[in-house]
Sequence to fold (353 residues):
Amino acid sequence: MDSDENHPSDSGPSRKHSSSALQLGPRKKATSSSPLVLHGRHFGRTVFALCNYPALLTAGILRLEELQDSPIEDYPADVRREHRVFVDLIDSYPGLLDRLTSGEEEDVIHIGELLGKGASGSRGDDTKTLKSAVLEWLVPRGQAVIPPLSRNIKSDRGFNHEVTGALLCPAGLDWLNTAIKLGLKSGETAVRGDQWPIFLYAGYEYDPEDPWKGLLKSDILICGFKHVFTSPSSVDKEPKATHSGNAYLHGMKSVTKGSLAYIATQVRFSLSSSSVFSRTDTVTDSENFYHSILDLLEDPDESEEVIDLMTWWTRRIFPNSSSSQRDISKNSALFKIRAKRATLQARANINTT
Fold:
């Protein structure tokens, strides 16, 4: 990981950005490194992965001025999400807003390029390591994948293989149906990113009457999350703090919506036959898949299920990270202290009304 101080770029920054900041920008080679690169690595994994950072920062600063006259609620949904990502970014890096508002446009773009370098670097690293690691999670330990899959070549994955094809088969379709299987293999049956694969579900079982049941709780997702955030060696062990893991290095103590969508996207890509992660890849449609998962997790109407899901994940990955995530023993002193405090507050509220 890069951790050097800021160095100004030798080449002039590009002024061309994608139509939305929450889309991948063009591939670029950043020539400098800084703490911003490290921050970009973690922000991309945990908040928003597929982002054009120079465009995000430029638009965000302009929007701050516009919001003095009109509320964010007046903007379209995609702009509101983009602004939430911008606010999360400036809130997560002390002093960033001051640097952005006091600098020239070239400075803003340069900062965005450093953040983007970190985000794309971590995404590339995770794509590379998961390509091999995922093969260990396809079948129960001790069993062999038949026919064997190559660790370095992905062309035999996806719907070209019985095991990966079954995992990638959209929920609601029967992989064992010959006609469906042939359609998926040939590409005649196109799979969009918002047609979620069965591997997202616990036990790889989908209930059309209760589509929330087991969603985003599969073993392969848990393995992928541990591999990226708590270290590859933690996949086969009880969850605990590991000083080498990305979560520990960045003080991560809970699973975020962005991190869950990120891992789901990475695991899905590792199972596919595509060799290069690209936003223009219409076969995997990874960007649409990532956005569709975030759409669900950020939907206010689904908040009850989402809160339960995120609590489930945090307890599974970071069981000792926060006392607020755990039930308090009813016979403990802590329980009695909090119960007494609640009683006193209730009395005080009655007396003031």
In short: The radius of gyration is 23 Å. Confidence is low (pLDDT under 50) at residues 1-18, 27-32. The CA atoms of residues 51 and 103 lie 22 Å apart.
